[in-house]
Specification:
- Strands 1-2-3-6-4-5 form a six-stranded mixed β-sheet, covered by helices on one side.
- The longest helix has 19 residues.
- It is an alpha+beta fold and 127 residues long.
- GO terms for molecular function: hydrolase activity.
- It comes from Halorubrum glutamatedens.
- This is RidA family protein.
């Protein structure tokens, strides 16, 4: 087991790793759409989703892989009415075949944001 960190994403909000590599898989903890340069998040859930995926990809790059290697994701929304807007941003950021995915509505997130995403990705990306 190996911890992965990146200075190119906002710090974790609690006692957890940004990502862990285990058995050839990168497990990225939940990320949000906070811009690491400004410390602010966009207002729209679509823009938050795009920024969240960019933050996820920065961690994946630190681990030696990229978004094309994502095979599973979980999307947490504070309002399921945002589902279509999140899907639009998700579709424009990721490529087919899209990862297996679960999407759930939660009452709130640790930061006052609308979306959080966690992913699992392959290190070698060839399967």
């Amino acid at each position: 087991m190996k911890e992965i960190t990146s200075d190119d994403v906002p710090d974790a909000l609690g006692p957890y790793s940004q990502a862990i590599v285990s058995d050839g898989t990168v497990h990225v903890s939940g990320k949000t759409g906070v811009d690491p340069e400004t410390g602010e998040a966009p207002d729209s859930v679509g823009a938050q989703t795009t920024q969240t995926l960019a933050n996820v990809e920065r961690i994946l790059k630190a681990a030696g892989t990229d978004a094309d290697a994502i095979f599973r994701s979980t999307v947490y929304l504070t309002d399921m009415d945002d589902y279509d807007e999140v899907n639009e941003a998700y579709r424009s950021y990721l490529s087919e075949p899209y990862p297996a995915r679960t999407c759930v509505e939660v009452s709130r997130l640790p930061a006052p944001l609308d979306v959080e995403i966690t992913v699992d990705a392959e290190l070698d990306g060839d399967e």
